[in-house]
Write the structure tokens for this entry.
Amino acid sequence: MPESRAVLFVCLGNICRSPTAEGVFRHYAQGCPSLNLAVDSAGTAAYHTGKAPDSRARQAAARRGYDLSALRARQVVTEDYHRFDYLLAMDRQNLDDLLRRRPPGARADVRLLLDFAEGVSLREVPDPYYGGEQGFEQVLDLVEAASAGLLSHLLEQAGRGNNPGALR
Ligand code: 4NP
């Protein structure tokens, strides 16, 4: 069984930004099957548990060839800190929430997603929920940039043999 790395994308509701990140990054990861990546998303809040991604997020993603239709919202659980190598927050509020709930002995590196986006001055992915279509396009632009950087980072790590542990 090849080594694997596990990435969880996190926003507030798990219906706009983090499912978009999951769908985009899954697509990018398909190009690197040897990395054997596990990819998921979750929200820090439970308001939308069980719901499909917001229709505006689904439509914007579909226009770029990403299918979000099978995804369903869930809230972050303590086990996520042990299962995933990375918990990647869309904004500082979600990062702070994740760090506050971090259990002792957590495996996950908890960071902002845009730490991996090269050439992007924003540090946070703006919440598109109360805005117009352009906000969903911006989410895709930022998530695509971060996905490329994250994949390069994981490939570099794997190349250095720094790839500890399969999914626990
Ligand atoms: P997300 O967007 O965190 O990117 O999924 C939001 C979705 C729902 C709400 C806020 C943000 N809400 O307040 O219901």
